Amino acid sequence: MSQDVGHAVQGATEESQLYGVLAEFEDVNSLMSAARKVRDAGYKNWDCYTPFPVHGLDKAMGVQSTRLPWVVLCGGLTGCLTGLLLVWWTNAISPDGVGYALRGYDFQISGKPKFSLPANIPPIFELTILFSAFGAFFGMLAMNLLPKFYNPVHKCKRFNRVTQDRFFIGVEADDDNFDLLETTKLLNDAGASAIEELEE
Amino acid sequence: MSDHATKSPNLTEKNVLGINTTVPAIGSAVVGVVLLLVAKMLAGDHTREWALGYLMGFGFFTAISLGAIFFVVVQHVTKAGWSVSVRRVAEIMAANIVTMGILAIGVVFLAGEIYPWTHMGPEVLKNKYPWLSHGFFGLRVAIYFVVLSIIAWYYYRTSLKQDKTGDRLLTLSMQKYSYLSIALFGLITTYFAWDMIMSTDPVFYSTIYGVYIFAGGTLAFFATIILILKFLQKRGLLAESVSNEHFHDLGKYMFAFVFFWGYIAFSQYMLIWYGNLPEETQWYDRRGATEHPSAPSWWVAWSVLLLFIHFLIPFPGLLSRWSKRISGLLVFWCVWILVAHFIDWYWLVMPEIRHSMDGGHGGEVAETTPFLVPLFCWAGVGGLWKAGLLAIAGQNQLVPTGDPRLGDAVAFENF
Hints:
Number of strands of chain B: 0
Number of domains of chain A: 2
Order of helices and strands of chain A: HEHEHHHEHE
Strand content of chain A: 5-15%
Low-confidence stretches of chain B: 1-6
Number of domains of chain B: 1
Low-confidence stretches of chain A: 1-12
Order of helices and strands of chain B: HHHHHHHHHHHHHHHHH
Structural class of chain A: alpha+beta
Shape of chain A: elongated
Strand order of the largest sheet of chain A: 2-3-1-4
Mean pLDDT of chain A: 87
Oligomer: heterodimer
Shape of chain B: globular
Number of helices of chain B: 17
Radius of gyration of chain A: 27 Å
């Protein structure tokens, strides 16, 4: 207990400074086992950095399955309704009292009904696809908090090798479980080849 | 995981049927023939009912075998690793095209009852006259099924050989021939669909028709292979090599083909609707798929049923990841898809019963569309199809254990 209190006092001066700790690992297997240990220790604000996609890492990190499909579904349904509204407004009606520029084209084309689904499904379909893609693309960016122009991990010289042959785990200081000594010890015990403290 | 990839799997599962398949195969064939004869008796004097029912059942199962050939060849075109553990069952289904080739002889002999063009002269058929002649038709059908059988059996036999020798070069030669095979497959599927199914209405023409048949058949193939694999696993086979990951991927394929079928079916419908040419729209009119159809109202209902059962309901149904990963749900949708395939084939073939046999100048036209006769025909052809499947499978392994990519397939995981 006394150690915790002491730490809190010490932390008060460093709080604005410390971003977290970054641990380096030399291969996939040690990264995977370390990720499992960090997960089991109950950390939430942490991440793994690897030179290539590592299969099974999601599970080792305890990452919940993504909610992005729901964003895509909403995007798709919005696109579908937008398309339906578009073809209906531009083809099927031409209401009085609406400004000339905003009115639809109430024309008879090749003897077809003014509003009939066979001819209108292509634009509805395309807008569904387009809005789904928007949902997937922008939803992914938003959920990953991208674009992100600054990340303190880049201050670390060792981190340059993350695109070549080194694997990293970064635990952020704002995690509820974060404690500089204990977190460092955990990563060290998990087989880190180097550990650095990162500043904001 | 990357470190799994090079590991050769050490499987101890049961991977042969382990029963004498000759007896059930003969039994199934006998039941099939009896059902076809029952259908013939039910049809009585109306031989055309029976002949069209036979064509419907034949088309239903041929389309599934075509889907199997497509699947097997595409795995080699794409050098796929994930599918190796399910590929043997697909190879057996593909090799079963031979059974359909034998049954195709029946269609050629029944051509006089099935195809109105056998009674039509050049004044009706116009440019199609030299193409639609009985002898040439028989020759083409023979070529289609011989070439398809050669492709299917080449892949089945080479893969079996690899079980014994483990020769990796066989994988390369299977891959080498896959590009030619897929091209031939595309051509033959299109021509098969035009000649054997579309020409039941010799006036109608649609270039996308072959793709439509392919889309529906491949969809039904995925439903069938999932059901067969589930059945085998229930019997304690393939417990290690086929995992939920493979079912998930086959389910994804099925989902994709639900949409592909809908896309193709709509493309065909929309263009014909827009073009509004009588020789094309009359085909849809006969199926009740127009605003003011001359077909009986239950055909209108059948067309709407096709739209919902084949596309609008299974599409959201298979959208979720869990619908492909929860075993019971996936089996439910597979059965659903096969029901849809039946509705589709009934819709494709049976309305032609109201097509007069000599080009609209009188002749016998049935007033009602039978249901029981084609149902028995379908079950009969199904019995023969199953007999072929059992006979071809025999005591062979149901997993290609000699394939160098089997390790990839066993270790495969979805994310």
